[in-house]
Amino acid sequence: MSTLQRHAISVDELRSTFGFGVAGNFAGHLEQAGEAADFTNVEAAAELPKGIFPWFVPGSGGRLGAFPLSSDTLAVPPPPGDAPLRIQVEPELAVLCDVVRDAAGEVARLAPRWVAAFDDCSLRRPGANKISDKKNWGAASKGLAPTAFAATELAADGPLASLRLACFLRRGDVTAAYGVDSAVATYTLFGEPLLDWLVDRLRLQRGSDDTPLEDVGAMLDASTATSVLVGVGASRYEPFGETTFVEPGDEAVVVLYDSRTHAPADVAACIADRRDDQLTAASVLRRVARAQSTASTSADHATR
User: Fold this and answer.
1) How far does Cα 106 stand from its chain's mean position?
2) Domains of the chain in sequence order
């Protein structure tokens, strides 16, 4: 039986929270997404992720200033000209952290508050200059579950050690596994090593023209946000997920669940039958893909 405390959350409470993600924190994902070559000029130890990237900068007047989070809708933008539209679900664990700064104003620590199922949904845009170019196309481009697990520390052998991440796509009456059901502990970095590395990257990562990375720390400083929502990395795809792209009408589902309470087969059965409420020790994100209207994106900017 799960000892994790689950509670409701609302995306509207995160409109002043800075959002960023981790690239390459799950072995094999970048290769499956066709993005490994983008990091040729990035210097990173083999045992570490490639870097961090922004997906929401509150207060920014640019593309990253559009609030992208939704718990029920996945916006599908119009195709880019004659090119095919390629959107993939990216199942992740997200952690909300308070930003703790030192006397000099530098980020000193990230203090976790909760974790939840997250979809770092991406537009596959070959030749995009920056990772962030693929990450925010307006309202409902990102997904966050309406429930979370309280978490004040992320130790891989601590309270979160039994969490697993699963992902499914429902098209018509068929629900199929989209991501490989994976233990959270198999992230390349997790726990305190991950939090320490995130602080290091916020303080030291710089952008350059020949890499897809940006100076995320400077963006965070300029936003004056006091909290961050971090997608800690997408898991590997099943063959179906690697070759299948989201279409209007699909249902994209990400599940962060306690394996002490739910077995992988039970999770898959509940999701297929839409019995999400029976997953009592899970954070479940289920979004319906809908065609994006230009008006919805403009309105989101106008109402902030």
Assistant:
1) 25
2) 6-302 (3.90.850.10)
Which H or E run contains 218?
A: helix 216-223
Beta-carbon contacts of residue 261 (< 8 Å; ≥ 6 apart): 1, 2, 280, 281
Residue 97 and residue 143: Cα distance in Å, rounded? 18
pLDDT of residue 45: 65
What is each CA distance from 66 to 20, 37, 42, 121, 260, in whole angstroms?
Answer: 14, 28, 28, 15, 38
125-134: list long-range contacts, CB under 8 Å, 24+ apart. Answer: 125/80, 126/34, 128/212, 129/209, 129/212, 130/53, 130/207, 130/212, 130/213, 130/214, 131/21, 131/23, 131/38, 131/53, 131/212, 131/213, 131/214, 132/53, 132/54, 132/55, 132/64, 132/214
Kindly give the residue spans of alpha helices, DSSP state H, lying in 246-289: 264-272
pLDDT in tens, 138-150: 999 999 999 999 9
Tens digits of residue pLDDT in 199-236: 999 999 998 888 889 999 999 999 999 999 999 999 99
Q: Please report the pLDDT score of residue 81 as a whole number.
A: 73
